[in-house]
Design brief:
alpha+beta, signal, globular, 18 strands
Length: 339
């Protein structure tokens, strides 16, 4: 049975605490010591029950300038189109993602309420790629999701505070890493003398051993950071009126799979204003993709180097729409028409 954490009411105070908690978990190795740029792991002593509030102005100091430029130019480009128009003046928080800090989570907020996110990754040719982005209040790597998942797995010590202004209490020697591979954001939880456990950073579902290893990254066209504004352009978002929740009407289970081998096919399947959706399911690998996913639109980025078609993907039980490169899903499962 899939595990879906109970929804948590987002208040300004809780959202602010969650953002600060996430920043602390990933940017500090012990109280009072700021982590280096490559620190995406932290040791948690058993008696650690409080956290030090971090100034958002201190976080970007370790962010590579190219990543910051890429993020801000991508945000500027996206803010020209709904539903991203309120991103232009949003606050920005950076969090490193492993392994090896090759990716960065960029969280956008206004008055400390989450608006959306970007995940930026480096490629093998010295460029940067927008691995995914999205809009909503339930951002990937939410501390609320992690807390619910760890509590369900029995990994919190008795007496762990329920107040989001206090850090969670783990067994001695516990480490937590935020990892990212294409379409697979996840936490790695290392408990002393026990096998590592992996938790999907969107759904909160614990991943099996088979889904733990890094997946092979598909080829995604890279956009050089210094040319984002001048060369790469995003199209308006094309969205349908299809159901965002793949579980609301599950007649798609009996449908014949669509033959989709190229991203361009989604432009025909997902027409603006239609009442259609395409369901992505990966069978035994559903947990890896937090599937089934309801695909209800797309946005295309173009440059002389090529183009990337991002699909709007919605999950059951979350207030989040992820924009995933179509290439990360094609060939990984089946696409079914939603009734």
């Amino acid at each position: 049975m899939n595990f879906h954490p109970s929804p948590v009411k987002i208040t300004p105070r809780r959202a602010r605490a969650a953002l600060l908690l996430l920043s602390l978990l990933l940017l500090c190795s012990h109280p009072g010591i700021a982590a280096a740029q490559t620190a995406d792991k932290i040791n948690l002593p058993a008696d650690r029950t409080a956290y030090t509030k971090l100034s958002s102005h201190a976080i970007p100091s370790s962010v590579p300038p190219a990543v910051d430029v890429f993020a801000r130019q991508s945000i500027s480009e996206l803010s020209q189109h709904p539903p991203f128009t309120n991103w232009e003046d949003a606050g920005v928080e950076y969090v490193p993602l492993g392994p090896g800090t090759r990716s960065w989570l960029v969280m956008l907020n206004t008055d400390h309420i989450p608006l959306g996110y970007l995940i930026i990754s480096s490629d093998n040719s010295g460029g940067l790629v927008l691995s995914e982005y999205g809009i909503g209040t339930d951002l990937p790597y939410s501390m609320n999701t992690l807390e619910s998942s760890l509590a369900a797995a029995g990994l919190l010590l008795p007496g762990s505070p329920k107040d989001s202004d206090a850090i969670l209490r783990f067994t001695p020697g516990t480490t937590i890493e935020a990892l990212y591979d294409p379409a697979l954001p996840r936490w790695k939880v290392n408990v002393k003398d026990k096998p590592a456990r992996y938790i999907h950073a969107v759904s909160g579902e614990e991943l099996t051993e088979r889904t733990n290893p890094s997946v092979k990254a598909p080829h995604i066209t890279s956009f050089k950071a210094q040319h984002v504004m001048n060369v790469s352009q995003s199209s308006p978002v094309i969205s349908t009126l299809g159901d965002l929740d793949p579980y609301r009407n599950m007649l798609w289970i009996t449908a014949q799979p669509l033959h989709i081998t190229q991203p361009a096919a989604f432009k025909t399947q997902l027409r603006a204003g239609s009442k259609t959706a395409v369901i992505f399911t990966a069978g035994k690998r559903n947990a890896e993709y937090a599937a089934p996913l309801s695909l209800t639109g797309w946005q295309e980025w173009s440059s002389p180097q090529g183009s990337i078609l991002y699909l709007i993907a919605s999950h059951h039980g979350t207030e989040l729409q992820r924009y995933l490169p179509a290439d990360t899903l094609i060939g990984k499962g089946r696409f079914l028409p939603s009734p």
